[in-house]
Specification:
mainly alpha; two-stranded antiparallel ribbon
């Protein structure tokens, strides 16, 4: 059985990935990695906020604020690695 936290993390990750693409413009081949980082970050953020008992912005037992903060942290890490990584060769 899939828990509601995972499903909500998929939706929160999708929302923040779409927001990132809208802000940045073009993202290219990093889109799957950004989405994966956002989903995993949202899932971890919910778990961290549950442990810390942060009771701000809840949907049921899901901590949206914690999930959003850590999702953006994951997106930022992937974007930073994409910028600092080696440049792609034009073919």
């Amino acid at each position: 059985m899939i828990g509601p936290a995972f499903v909500l993390s998929l939706l929160v990750g999708l929302f923040h990935t779409a927001l990132f693409v809208m802000i940045r413009g073009r993202i290219g081949g990093q889109l799957p990695l950004v989405y994966l980082a956002a989903v995993l970050g949202a899932w971890a953020g919910d778990a961290i906020a549950t442990r810390l008992e942060v009771e701000l912005l809840l949907i049921g037992d899901y901590h949206v604020l914690g999930a959003s903060v850590v999702a953006w942290l994951g997106i930022g890490i992937v974007a930073l690695i994409g910028v600092l990584g080696p440049p792609r060769r034009a073919e």
